[in-house]
User: Fold these one by one.
Assistant:
Number 1:
Amino acid sequence: KNGGVLAASNYPSFDQNLYAAQYNEYSADENMPLFNRALQGLYTPGSTYKPSVAVAGLDTGLLNRNSTVNCTRVYTYYKDYRPRCAQHGHGNGPIDVVNAIKWSCNIFFYDVGRRLTSDVYDAYAYKLGLGQRTGVEVSEALGHLTTKNDSNYTESLDIQAAIGQGNTAVTPIQLATYAATLANRGTRYRTHFVKAILDTNTGETLEETQPEVMDVVEDKGETFDLVREGMKGVAQTIPALAAYPYTIACKTGSPQRSEGYYVGSTYKHYTNAAMIAYGP
């Protein structure tokens, strides 16, 4: 509710007590235990990026509750580039923003992203906390959103970025900040670890971190209600979350990595797993 970090973890980790004695060993470890992935690791967000595009579409008036895109599995707007939709349960036909988030329909977000353009949906992603400093008190990576100034920019990259691919790379702390901003209906607080500074002798509170608003996306009408409805729907498609005693709003992603492998003569890309969520 105020940008305070309740828990943060990093893996693989290391023994703080042995940091000095085993520094050379830790530094040489190919798994990089000294690298703080939570704050400095840059990752493609994949479909976890889609709620920010939905916010942009709804807030600008391009979309409303009843707006639909016809999903036919293949996006045919471009003659020489026809990306596909995984169709995680929604099948062919018109799909609205709530169900597009719930079922992670690529075709919906390709089309909305194309019509908005990356200039617009990136502006909302920045306000929501992606590709921005979160404000934590220790070193963090900035990341990058896909823009028209990128050296490899093409129109097809613009629609790939709308589903969290392209050149977009963000940190886990940014994803957490973004999820909190969605939960707070567009108010982004400075993310912080320090709750208070105490006198070590007396235990007296010398200074307490106050909530600091970094940015606001004005909630116009149903924008955050509809995004929340879609994210709650995602949880209902995941058995462990559907059976959870609390209602969870979330968005999963399976961003493709550049590395791949062959299945027979077919080349497939490895994927990462990504997820943002918030609770009651």
Number 2:
Amino acid sequence: MIELIYEGKDINLEADVAVTGCVYTDCVHGRADSVRIAFSDAQKLWRLWAPQKGDAFEVRQGAIRSGKMYVSKLAARENTFVLAGSATPLSALGAASESWENIRLSELVSRMAAQVGMTAELSGVPDRLYARFDRVRKTVPAAIQFLCRRESAALKAFDGRFLLLNERKLEQAAPVACLKPADMTAPEFGTSDAGLMREVTVQYVGADGQITGRWADGRIAGGTLAVETPVSSQGEAERFAKGFLRAANRRETAGAVTVLYDDGIATGNVV
């Protein structure tokens, strides 16, 4: 049974406001987790309760919990009420510009997360020291996602936190499940050349002149990408270029399957 905790109150989802549909999207790589939940509401109770955009809520079912969500959309229809939410608050939509010098990655993302009422954690990601970082007209999630791409990290927003996860460790983890053809419905796998990059160049012109780093993938016959961002050494520029190239080519091979409800599989798991 689905449970709903709304602004700290346990909502009784029986009879008058029974759930008629719920979709929870569990994401990694920068997209925030989201929930869309529909209720029967012949008595118009949700209208009386007057929910507001930005309200906090959580959806639970068995071992699955959405973590803290923030209302992003409300819709009232005949005998139905629809509530949608995201793991990032409305304040995360605001873009800004600011700069830091001599700052660790952990402190940098924590400071930005605090601006929208969230925290940040590194999981298996080296806590690099940056000589400089410029956030230029970016939202907090976009700025943290930029940092993740250049450090080959995956970003997940969940339960009031930005989690920076080591991509390679995720991919090298032991499988949590093995799916056989009989377990799957409508399996689809394939490759695509869309957006692939053959080479990425990272460059920066500082007080000591220009620093340039490149990273290439000889298998790819795609385009090239040039990124300008502050770096303190050629080695750092090459590390960033490798991260940007990895991010650009991540979706070269992709697949999708439908399986029965299984709370033992979560985003980031190897199957």
Number 3:
Amino acid sequence: VGTHGGSIWILDDLTPLREWSKGVEAKTAHLFTARPATRWHYDGPVSSQVKGPGQNPPIGAVLHYWLKDEPKDDVVLEILDEKGGLVRKLSSRKVEPATPPDDPDAAEDDAAKKALPKKAGLQRAVWDLRYEGATKIRAAKVDSGDPAEGPMVLPGTYTLRLNVGGQSLTTPVEVRLDPRVSVSGGDLEEQLALSLALREDLNRLSG
């Protein structure tokens, strides 16, 4: 949508509008269908976290949910693999960052770790298509990379399970391989196994 005078709005996901109904509005909570997500391979720092004149799309799987009222307890999103194993857990509970905000090494905008919204109304959350990362050593200096950023999941179908107000709502989400990347499934599995093993080594060091 454009004003032809300098402003453009890109409506990149109309799922909530397409699925909206009086029945959804009457529910205390509703989890909308999740669109397929692509595990894009970025060679540089271009991401939704880079400051600029515009705003890039979120990196990962975008999901929408409806809350008729603000729940008293935390909103929890669990991502499960095809075997039902827990890949990631996101929550509305705010967690104190391992790096103080005034630290020069602190990230400017750690969008992937923001708490899930729990106010009444239509809400949006993003899963960055990654496993849980390693536990960072508090106040430790990291020259490059982020140990708290977990490895990317394999292409496949995952289950998003939203727990809110005593309800458990689920919807599948398909994770697709970057079409520009040519790699075998076996190589991806070996890469993931090594990454998860390194993550556990880091957890033991910081424990």
Number 4:
Amino acid sequence: VSALLASGAVPVSDTVEDTYFEDAVFIGDSRTEGLILNTGLSNTTSYVYKGLMVNTVFTKPVIKKDGEKISVMDALKTTDFSKVYIMFGINETGWAYSRVFQKKYGDIIDAIQDINPRALIYIQGIMPVSDKVSSEHQYITNAKISEYNRLLQELAKEKKVYYIDTETAVISADGSLPEDAAYDGIHLVKEYCEKWLDYLKTHTVE
């Protein structure tokens, strides 16, 4: 396992069943919300919210527990889990300082390790957007996404957690998201969410 941590992204492994995710928590924004909804992965825990970011995951009350709304990280403290899948970055591409994104992401990993030191933590690479979005959007660009993914790979090595290059599950030859992969160039349609899940099921470390 330690050799794997030093070697970069999680390599191909035997395919796991959906039951693998029963003790997992998925944390992310609307893209992860789409993954759960479009694949019917209902046997896992998902703490997701549209527009959620690496800083608001600690503060924004979006998860309903016992009749009140609390933050994702507070919800995690009351959750039994052995694995965590994290995906953030698309909403943070407009941030002025890339290292702040990396630092805040690191805070999430530290907090998870405090809650459960034995948990497997998977950082998922940020998927690209379509050429159209990348060239026309005010701040979301594939160049920025690539930069963030390099920082996340650095972070994974530093924190001794696992990086899954999920972006390769959906990327086209030119490094962008295919036009038919997302209805708005960002959020994946059902077929591509299934490609994403298949990639997770063939890239595990257990």
